[in-house]
Amino acid sequence: MAYSDKVVDHYNNPRNVGSFTKDTPGVGTGLVGAPECGDVMKLQIRVNLETGVIEDAKFKTFGCGSAIASSSLATEWLKGKTIDEAAKIKNTDIVNELKLPPVKIHCSVLAEDAIKAALADYKDKQASVTTGAASK
Amino acid sequence: MGLKFPIFMDAQSTTPSDPRVVEAMLPYFTEKFGHPASRNHPFGWEAEGAVDAARAKLAALIGARDPKELVFTSGGTEAINLALKGVAEMYREKGTHIVSTVIEQRASLDSFKRLERQGVSVTYVPVQPDGLVDVEEIRKAITDKTILISVMFANNEIGTIQDIPAIGRLAKEKGIIFHTDATQAVGKIPVDVEAMGIDLLSCTAHLMYGPKGVGALYVRRKGPRVRIAPMIDGGGHERGMRSGTLPVPLIVGFGRAAEIAKAEMAAEGERLGKLRDRLQDMILSSVEEAFLNGRPDRRLPHNLNISFAYVEGESVLMGLNKETALSSGSACTSSTLEPSYVIAALGASAELAHSSIRFSLHRFTTAEEVEYVGQRTIEVIKRLREMSPLYELAKEGVDLKTIKWKAE
Fold first, then answer.
1. Residues B274, B299 share a domain
2. ipTM for the complex?
3. Catalytic residue among B332, B378, B390, B394, which?
4. Where is average pLDDT lowest: A124-133, B286-295, B317-326?
5. Domain with B272 in it
């Protein structure tokens, strides 16, 4: 199976590989997939608490080249978006951008799941910070 | 001598034809083009003579008493289909049970699936963690309905060589026909159908430096005389077991490949074994949590199969595939999207089944190539681990089994 140029580029030069400390304020972490399925993605966002804009994003992925490329692309797209804008990223956008073949669509689905999980984690953390502050 | 790219280290998928093989074949495309079944003119006699000579060379390689015991087919897959389905049909009155193993190649497993739909039952004996079948497990699986034992000689992924003589003795003791899929073994390691008690043996030319498109099934004629129902009807060629005009150039090439293999096998096996050991030592000494698959001391000399924890197989191949051709048990490299059933059968975690890489060396592999591929593999694994969330968690001391994974 030949890979698209964009998949190869993301695989060879992955954007934003790395990790944020999970408990840093404004950081949301998503960990999706399962080792026995051959794909695990960890995707993190760091949100500016005042503006609600995602200032930085990082990922680490265990998976095939298309999974690595999907998560790398996702971090690129997340930067500069607001939380609400980020929630609108669809797996089909990733499929189109990376020209993923049908057998690799699950990689894009997993990347969308990772984005959603990171956003949900961020929102949960914000909610608990707010309620924590209110109860004091 | 400089390296030539891409480097081919996937020789258990296929091998290049030896130039000596091609040279032997060439005249049979043009001036010596006769049909070996043409009995009444020199063109036919010449072709028949060439086929007979090739048959004798192949018989000598596998220790067959009589070259007539070899039936040429289109390849290993057809030989296996013919053996399994041919026996099941011919001996249906006698019994409808077959004993085999969980690590057979797809040609066997898919033939069994079809036979199962037709009322044959198949027992798949498991393998031990080292890839070896316990012969006692085969004994236990035998019933009074068993007509065939079919066990591969050497595995295509992990190279494990089964105890074929012991299985041959068991089959003889029980009066059951014994087939072995020897596609990975013939021409690489000593195979002797007489000494090993083999009744049916499948092999193929393209895995032993011969051409693609030709294989053979050995069918024992004496002690016992094995009979198989043909799958292809036609002119009654190959003693009625496989009709169809014989591909004379391919058969001549197969014969030449067998002749070369017989002469050079010992030295070649030793050379490749040393190169393989070098590659193995290089990788295992510099990559932690890399696991050798298959029993080390019962392995094809040109095979090396390693699972690398925390990285996925296809991503490893992708890091190397511009310069090196390898193969992986990763689901993403297979058309079924399932990880290697062979590695999984060893009892390895599914994660490690996704992470296996097969290196298979061949006649033209050089020491420089081994050094290069070893170094590049180590680099790629290190880079991918830096990118792996599983590696990061493991480094933090998290037991990956304790995590509740949110799979799709």
1. yes
2. 0.92
3. B332
4. A124-133
5. 265-397
